[in-house]
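tool_call: predict_structure(chain=1)
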Amino acid sequence: MARLAHDFNSILGTIVTTLRKCIQEGTFDANVVYSATNKLAEHRYKYDTELFPALPSDYPWAIPELSAPESLAEALLWKMGKWNIYKSFAAYYSSPSSLPKSTDSVFYAFAKHLQNPENPIYDQHALRALWAIDAKLTPDQANICYSLLVKRDGTWKPIISGSKTKAGYDLYIERITALVKDGVTLGELDRLLMPLGQALKGNMANVSEFRNLVGFRD
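tool_result:
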């Protein structure tokens, strides 16, 4: 089992190194994304289309009243104790000028995606993957990734959180926008970054192991 884990970590390191090199050299294109996505899928790290079926494009999402649950979906959220989270999410969607709180930037970003599909879906795995592969992140941007993803003891946070929440989302938008070219679409990039970030978290117990795999030097 240890040998298998070591072998996959070697494959994972090659994937990350190749992606970093392509971004650095300006050769990051649809073929590169397709190849890396398929290599991850061979090891069961892939975007789950059953868990996340395609969203309708430019759908006119209704803004709920939220005085009480009015649909089965809302009733289920209420039963799960997620009613206030849902209300906060709906407020993000209804107010273009809203800003995320320190622990709910993922819901904020999803609301912005529903407002405009050109805004990428964002979560801890996508940010971790971007941190790993984007050779053009500035030191300040890399530090933002660290603060949002890593605990004081060097292990991974369970969710994105911290005082730099908005800065993290802004840098993600900036860098993803720069990578969407040469045939790379937001959808295909999402299908790469989510499983890559999951693989990095699942196989790197702490940020030191992550840095070693990626090749970062302090």
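agent: The first helix runs from residue 2 to 25. Proceeding to next step.
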